[in-house]
């Protein structure tokens, strides 16, 4: 997680009496300056609570960091310092924290909202106009498909901007990123994300080419642009709040941004005031928190938030200033939408996280004669189902992953039961003959997986394990051996199961861990046999009856949730 904690100011005057009591507030970075100013203004009247001087300290902290740190045992000297009041940029962080049983009693189900701001697509104005804005509504999903297809800005008559670039951010750290991901994934807007809809997240993940954790980082890069034309080469759409875009544009940058309400609909950042129910928030601090909240709901406070580009809790812009309508700000989005349920959020973010993980993968696929038999679910032959599942699984991989592919049956290469069809290497790279590895993989999957022979499982597994160990990659990669078979070992001339287990254990290197996954496809796969041999190196075997089962197992492996 990117660190986002910045200490603000301690506001106190010398006119109040009694032993001071300090109220510690953590506010999201975009609203923290406003809260600091309001705390200073509140202190001007030297507030006293139960005869004691009330002090307010405000610091900026990424909402996701506070959500992760929140616990009944939160220590005052933790890396993320303990607070009494939490003001995140979205209720989703409160809900996600409250999903933990020990945290749920610490937060209110009905906290007070002090401001709101729509999450928009921030896009350089020239790029928006090139796509037909403001007359045309722009879609994240369509932009993502355009990027994945390799389309350049030449399509929009601006070849000088080169490749289309999209930044999403980290949905685990940024609400604009999370809100955008969920609105794209939940295509039908029913506030839940089905497994079928997760494919929308895949397209968005593969389209995201500009790495940054939060909207603040994207905006900071735009502020550094000194030449408009040169800056557009590295620019593109990214999610941000309307208030963030307003603050950026009001500084008169070289490249103005427009705030677009995307076709998928608009989610809102709802800035809440959450007084924690914790042992360290005593009755006096609770009273200070209540008094300060009352002040935050005053007309002066609404104007202060409005001056920073925020809307009031009812989405009105009556207090807001600096919302330039020529740059898409200030209107009420026609397609406002809610955030999906916690289960869908957890599932979607987990899926996204898996898609970002870099792997070093060797896929070994059974091409024995039985793969020509009908598939268990009736959808063609076993091989046809596996072919489609393989293509979908490869699409899940981060483009910076390494991948190689073998096939196996019996005596494919002399007395060897296996054949190296695509050597391990960068997924986006080329083979020695210049063939793009992706093209070679597709050719292998579609045309080279010809069912023939029996199943030489043991010799193949040992050779594949040794091969991947020779190509082992560090850099926090997942080194993964995936085998798919519809049967059991049928090579009487190869090594025995006991020999396989002994040699696997002798070959394994704890300094170079390899995750082994065997998928037993169909009713003839011997899961007991597969489990026995995978356990020798800490691997796992899973049954599958459909292509969807294969994809689920592979995705669970990327996420790290096998069971």
UniProtKB/TrEMBL annotation:
Name of one Pfam family that matches: VWA
InterPro entries attached to this UniProt entry: EF_Hand_1_Ca_BS, VWF_A, vWFA_dom_sf
Residues covered by the VWFA domain: 360-558
Domain of life, source organism: Bacteria
SMART domains per the UniProt record, alphabetical: VWA (SM00327)
Protein name stated in the entry: VWA domain protein
